[in-house]
Amino acid sequence: MPHILVQDQQTIRLLLVYEIFKRDFDLFKYSFADPANKIPIGEIDLDEIHTKLSGTSTRV
C-alpha cells in the first residue's frame, strides 16, 4: 500500500510545480509531461519573451 501513497505524492508535487511555473512552461515551450527535458517542444517567440520579461507591451 505505501507505493500508492508515494505515487500520489509525486503527482501532487508535479502538479504544484506546473502551477508555480505554468507561465514559464508556456513561454519557453517546455514539456509538462517531461519536465526534465530541457529542449523546447515548440518554436520559441523571442519577441514575446522580450516583451513579457521587460514588462512592456507592443500592442497599439
Could you explain how this protein is built, in words?
With 60 residues, the chain is mainly alpha-helical. Helices cover 60% and strands 0% of the residues. The longest helix has 27 residues. The relative contact order is 0.10.
Structural class: mainly alpha
Q: What's the mean pLDDT score? A: 81
Could you give the count of β-strands?
0
**Rg estimate, integer Å:** 16 Å
Q: Which parts are unreliable, with pLDDT below 50 for 5 consecutive residues or more?
A: none
End-to-end CA span: 58 Å
User: What's the helix count?
Assistant: 2
- Oligomeric status of the shown chains? single chain
Global morphology: elongated
Element pattern in H and E: HH
Estimate the strand proportion. Answer: under 5%
Largest sheet: none
The helix content is 55-70%
For the structure shown, list the relevant keywords.
mainly alpha; 60% helix; 60 residues; single chain
List the helices and strands and how they pair.
Layout: H1 2-28, H2 46-54
Short description:
The protein has 60 residues and is mostly helical.
